[in-house]
Amino acid sequence: MDLREMLREGCKQLDIEVREEQIDQLLIYKDLLLEWNEKMNLTAIKDEKEVIIKHYLDSITCLKVKELKNEGKLIDVGTGAGFPGIPLKVFLPKIELNLLDALNKRLTFLKEVCSQLQLDNVQFTHGRAEDFGQNKNHREQYEFVVARAVASLNVLAEYCLPFVKVNGYFICQKGPLLTDELKMADKAIKVLGGEVVEQMDIQLPFSEINHRIVVIKKIKQTPTKYPRKAGTPAKNPIL
Ligand code: SAM
Fold it and tell me: Which domains does the chain carry?
């Protein structure tokens, strides 16, 4: 099966509608990713088919979350090489996307990707989540926050929940060990104003990989002392 067919068939298995132009965009992105990866560290996955499965199909599993709509503001915290933020923007073109990462050279790559894919309404933010979570232009300004492979949930909740508007959602992609992480993050989620409203098991197409998505709704404002200063959430998580 070629890569185009894999994307078509993968979306079908996930019950996600896809158009040929969206597949074109994802394939251009894949070429750029592998080309730039020769010069800078963007992904450990080098096989094209694995890139399709573990980056693109995995990112778009967030579309299974019914709360996620094609409108409003979405920030991808610790986006790295653009996952899941850019694939989501390809499928939800009306969202205002912000890609945040502590590593500036990754943002240089992301700017090139967004320009070549002709994605508009994308902002690039260089810095730590802990700092921007205290910035009034970003704090409680987003309907949706997404994150994949950034930190354990109790730390991640402190990075992400401050960005979410009350009644908005933090959508977090995790592995099958989520149950333990969730127990550990119970207090942090509550203290930061969140409530777990949904957990979904996802079987990634063409693989044995099971992933979980946890959906956390912001039910009240985050106390102003959070997020604490950069480095503190990871060193001293809320327990
Ligand atoms: N989300 C991407 C993915 O799933 O492929 C990247 C995952 S990568 C393992 C983690 C990324 O999070 C890195 O690019 C790192 O620079 C960023 N990161 C980690 N802690 C951060 C923080 N406190 N603030 C902003 N970015 C952070």
Answer: 3-235 (3.40.50.150)
